[in-house]
Structure formats: C-alpha cells, structure tokens
Specification:
alpha/beta; TIM Barrel; 2 domains; 18 strands; elongated; disordered N terminus
Length: 414
C-alpha cells in the first residue's frame, strides 16, 4: 500500500436513532450508503403538491427501497405524506417500534399467523379472501378494537386481489363484520409507466373497469372513503387515477419510471425536480502502479491499455455492485473524474483504473452512485447498463452496507 492520507472509517453513531435503525454489517470498512433525508422530504413535498387534493401515501417497503424504512418514513411524513405502505407485517412493526404512528397500509394479505401482530401494531390490512376477513374479524373481536381495512381488486395485474366477480361478496363479507371498517378499495396498474399506445389503452381500460366496479358497489349501498389505484407512474402520467390517494414509491427516492412519466412530470411539476436520495461511496484502501498489459482481478479479463495506477476499493457484488457492470463499461468517480473498472467486480472489492493520475491515494473518496464535483452517476445509469430498472438498483444495495443518514429536514416541507 502506498502511503497517503489516512483512511477514515464511516461508522454510524449507535446513539443516533436514524443511524441505528439503518446500520448493518460492514461498519469496520470504509464503504457506506449515504441517505439524504432532506431529498426524501423534498421529493415527498413535490409529489404531494402534484397529486393534491389526493393524499400522498409513501411506500416504504423493502426497507424503504433500500434506503432505511423508519428514517425515510419520517422524512416523507415531514414532506407531506399522510400515510405509509409496506409489503410485510415485519416492516410495519419496525416502523411502529421506532415511533412512527402514521397509518400504515399492508399492500398484500399477510399470513394468518401474522394477523394478531398486525392488529397489535395498528397496521391496516389489505384483504381479498374470506379466510383473511374471518381471521382479522376474529382478531379484532378478541382485542375489542375496530380495524380499518382495504380491499384490493385485480383489474389486470393478475398477481393478488379479489377477482372482479368476487369483489361484491368480499366487500359484503367485510361489511357483515362489525369490528371491521371498510376504509379503502383499490387496484394496481402494471403498465402505467409504459411507452406504447397499447400500454396507455390498457391502463385507461383498467381505470374504467375499476370505476364501474366501485359504482356497482355504490348501488349496493357500499362506499369506501379512500379509493386508490395510482403508483408513482400513474399518479403522474394518468391524473384521473389519483382518486383519494396516490401510492408513491420510486418517486419518493428521486427517480421516475420511464420517459413518458418523466415527460408528464416535467409538464406538471412547475419546474420542480426530484432529487436522488441515495449515494453509494467508499474509500481507496490500496494503490499500485501496473504496466500496460497487466490483467487485474478474477479471470484476468482485460489488459490495461497503458501503464496505470490501479486503486483497490472495498465494495463488491455482495454489497450490490453487480459483476455485469464491468462488461457494460461502468465508471466510478474519483476526484471528480470518471474512472473505469480495471477488472472484474469481486465479492468484496473492485479495482479502478486511474490512468496516469498518480495523485490518487488511500483514503480518497470513490463515488459509485451519486455526485462528485461536476459529475454524477445515477441508478438510472446503472439500470441502462444492466438492462434493468432503477428500483432493482437501489433495492439491491446489500445489507452489510451501513446506511448513513445526512441532511435531516428540520421542519415539515423542508
């Protein structure tokens, strides 16, 4: 190792609630995910204004899309979100255990063995089967506490939800239970981010179908105060889908799904921009100068084109940096300059070709996602190289990467 600046380990303070919530393995090495909570608050405020008068529901499942559930939930609420949504009972419990008391919607039916836990922590279930309705009704009777519930209907996603034909009976079953209150009826739109006319027609057809179903329930004397269908994409690209609530996930974290949605956002947002909330950073731990033709890392896949300084950085595919980035021409930022990988991504480390820049030293910051100087690397960039979506990129940052919260908002709407 070449002597240079000392390596600063980034270790969240265990006494800091947000940091403690999001800490994981790997605190003894200089690699971390930096979470800009003010960006989350800003994004929530922008989205809340855009979808008003509908309520903003912040989707914080999958540990806040990899950003840290409790911390981003609080930041989103500070920006104007009125509700939260998660996929799993455990995710809702984590929010409650860290003092988040806003309404929390479960986006799918939970297992029957988790019903009592969901009720104990005041989570709002989504229901679409007779068994789940019976279980939640029995649990509510046992605790003598009424529970708000939402019913989901499948209008074309074909994943979960009551079939349209079964919806009247499912809703009637909820209405028969005195300890259950039908708060919401909802559906999900799988191609609201689509670029093709066929996608738009399918989504419009889903909305027409959903509205007919809701009208049919009304003729039976059944109404719900919260109708919702829109995710981030639909809430922007299909204003009619906003109804009473919009469930925003990806947009909350600073990204938009597809060119059509981005164009619609630019038209509606009055010049506001979303800000990516996650940066992925590490520090150089070793440097060495190698001759042209040397082939660093596993497989010895690529010869160095010239004599180069090669920096070793302690982050790899176990942390969410896919091996496929090497072949895709991925570049990290060092000293505000884009630098290519010198060899294959390994489980714990990458090697970076710094060319003839002999000023790079151990301790220098490396940005894998985020901004450094005048350059930036985004999750959209990764997604384009990997043939995937930005959702997968941010959710894929591994559990042993500490999440370090920065820029906490001081006040609602900050």
């Amino acid at each position: 190792m070449v002597e240079g600046a000392p390596i600063r380990l980034v270790v969240p303070d265990p006494s800091d609630e947000d940091a403690a919530v999001t800490m994981a393995q790997g605190r003894s090495r200089p690699a971390w995910a930096e979470i800009d909570l003010a960006a989350v608050t800003h994004n929530a405020a922008v989205l809340a204004r855009l979808v008003a008068p509908a309520e903003l529901c912040a989707v914080v499942k999958a540990h806040g899309y990899g950003h840290g559930g409790p911390a981003v939930a609080r930041a989103a609420l500070a920006g104007g979100a009125r509700r939260l949504a998660v996929a799993l009972v455990d995710e809702g419990v984590e929010l409650r255990q860290h003092g988040v008391d806003a309404p929390v919607l479960l986006l799918s039916e939970c297992g029957l063995d988790a019903v009592d836990t969901a009720l104990a922590y005041g989570l709002t279930p989504t229901l679409y089967s007779a068994d789940a309705i019976s279980a939640f009704a029995a649990g509510a009777r046992a605790t003598r506490r009424r529970s708000a519930v939402h019913v989901k209907v499948d209008t074309g996603m074909h994943r979960v939800g009551a079939t349209p034909g079964d919806l009247p009976e499912i809703v009637a079953a909820v209405a028969r239970e005195p300890m259950l209150d039908l708060e919401g009826v909802w559906t999900h739109l799988p191609v609201a981010d689509g670029e093709q006319a066929e996608d738009r027609a399918f989504t419009e057809g889903q909305l027409d179908h959903f509205e007919r179903l809701v009208a049919g329930l009304a003729t039976q004397g059944v109404t719900a105060p919260v109708l919702h269908a829109a995710n981030t994409a639909a809430g922007i690209a299909f204003p009619r889908s906003r109804y009473d609530m919009v469930r925003c996930g990806l947009g909350l974290y600073g990204y938009l799904p597809g060119d059509a949605v981005r164009a619609a956002f630019d038209t509606q947002a009055g010049g506001a921009q979303l800000r990516p909330a996650m940066s992925l950073k590490a520090r150089v731990v070793a440097v060495r100068t190698l001759d042209a033709g040397e082939r660093p890392s596993y497989g010895r896949l690529r010869p160095l084109p010239a004599r180069s300084l090669v920096a070793t950085v302690p982050i790899g595919y176990a942390d969410g940096v896919p091996r496929a980035l090497f072949g895709a021409g991925y570049e990290v930022l060092v000293g505000g300059v884009r630098r290519p990988l010198a060899g294959m991504v390994t489980m714990d480390q990458i090697v970076v070709d710094c060319g003839d820049d002999d000023s790079v030293r151990p301790g220098d910051e490396v940005v894998l996602l985020g901004r450094q100087g005048g350059e930036a690397v985004t999750a959209d960039d990764w997604a384009a190289m990997l043939g995937t979506i930005s959702y997968e990129v941010v959710c894929g940052v591994g559990p042993r990467m500490p999440r370090v919260p920065v820029n906490r908002p001081d006040a609602p709407g900050a």
